[in-house]
Amino acid sequence: MSKITEQFYSVKFSGHCAGQDLLPDGPVEAIVKKNVTLETLVDLTENFTKFAWSFHRGSELVPIITITPTGDTVAQSYQGRVLVNRTNGFLTLIKVEARDRGYYYATMQTSELVKTGETMLRVLGSREWYGLPEGPVDAVSGNYVTFQTLIAPEDKLSAIAWFFNNGSELIRVVAANEQRENFVSEGYWGRVTINHTNGFLTLGPLSAKDNGEYFVNIWTAKGLMTGDTTLQVLEPISNVTVRTNVSETSAVVLTCSANGSFLKFSWTNGTTPITADNTWLTIKDESTFSTLTISGIQASDLTGQIYCTAGNKLEVEKSSPFNLSVIGKPRAAWSVTFENRDTCALKGSSVQFRCSYDYPDGETVHKTEWFKGQNKVGGWKRAALSSLSSYKNRVKYIGDQEHNCSLEIKDLQDSDAGYYYFRFDTQTYGWRSKGSVHLSLTGLTARLRPYRVKEGQNVTLKCDVSCTLSGPTRIVWFRNGHPVNKPLLFQASAEDAGNYTCAVEGRESVRSDPVFLHVQSSPPAPVITVLSDSPFTPEAEEGELSTVSSHATTSAYTLTSSPATTSSHTSTSSDTRYGDTRLNCQNVLDIQSTWFEKLQTELKEMQLSFERSLRQMESRTHSLLWSVSRRLERVTEARGRNSGPSDPSDPSDPSDPSDQAKTFISLRSLLPRSVSAVTPSSKPPGHRSVNLHVRSQHVRRGNHS
After folding, report:
1. pTM passes above 0.85
2. 343-353 pLDDT per residue, tens
């Protein structure tokens, strides 16, 4: 038996430095609902490994935040309530509450030493200061407990009084004045001491009757401080024992019991924690005991020693080791064997898990069950397929209750992938498979490379899967829903175009998505004829390249070096004395086609550019003619006003009709019909047309000869 009592104030470490070299002298004072910052005396830019803040709440040291060179970790209860400065370690509490009053501890670790510090936080409420830290305070029966206050030495304590509420009345425990005189009530003589500097009260040895509420009134130079807290006296932990019980269903129940208060239990197999999966292992905790149930016990289930540990905030005690032996059942006689533990199947198809099991003679199988492993909150769970609605009408047990445990699953879905387990029960024992069958699912993906070809080019067929299908597999192909017998590499023809899908032979109902093969028909191949008397003469080097067909004697692409190449005899290339070489010139046609397309594009761009320039010139011409027309119109009107009526007998009159017979150009004839509205002819009646004379016949009056 071992007891561990947490010590918060008197821990000593070799090479550690404890004291106020980390935090400044307190106390730190704050106001409810205001922020407060707890400062330090260090620089975290030094070589430190960890810096931590914690709070002493009752009898428990509660972590607040831990700072490391790589980041910060904030306790869940302080999420959103604290800020920390990574340079100096300052801790800021946001919107302080009354429960934040008490003692705070800081610890800084470096590669060489550990520094610690303590400071007090006092909180001012609506009317008065809180005199005690937040409770409750826990202590073990038979031990001593110290009630701390939030008084600092400089507060100059003048008087203090402690009270206890026993449920029916408020009893004064002890009082002290400025002269350090103590007034101890009956029933507490020899059991209490008081510190006249900070008002701390030490009470003990404790018993169950000391449980309850404690109050304090403190008088200092600042005035009255009050406070209250609760003491919980815990029974010491003792008699941690483990006993066993084997049920009729081959389940083993281990029960751990202990004496003590606020107990929490844990189980270990040696040093490895035992966790419940609620299928084979079940743990149930009560206030004074815990049960561990192992279903379908096997000789290999409990190897090593089993321990039970009981503890609370103040103590921990471990039981003596417990050993469980399974006798009379040979391990080799109980087994489950899977034929293929890694199975790959097609989505939408069916799969079978081939399985066999064995057990000792004399046993009779009463129940068989398959399970699916699931990762849920709390750990790995095994759920019976019969309890899962997603497997309804899709699962069939094709085994028996003797030795065959095979299973079939139909219409496979994505959610079916995972781990599967088998279990069987006899009248004496239950046995579950140690291993499992892992099911992977895949689809079929049809691929054509390339999927766009010309007649005569090669096409490769490929059907991809994401895992290796179990059992023999042969891929079959379909074009437009009809089976085709094509090699994986073939030369495409026009009739090969269409939608291709692939499937596994024997499972043709599950097919891939279709992929379309485009086959471009090729035109009749042109012929290139090289004409030459001799391939080694200069004339051969200057020979003619002609593109001809069987229906024409000349071609738009015929290149000639002499008139003789245009003769019908030469074009048909029937004379055997020429070197007749006919080549497939599909590449030449492709290059020419590309060149003509490029030329056509450039011509189109030139046409558009010319049209834009023409429109710009037309617009500028219209503007110029309109300007000239307006100017001449104003000049004509001015001359009409100054000259008066014309004399037909005066030969010098420039308005003589004979002059009008002279050659002239009308402005209206220069303007297009679209702008005729702005020409002089569109003026109201009475206006004269304005003419631009080519040869002027005007002479000065009196000088006519």
Report:
1. no
2. 999 888 899 99
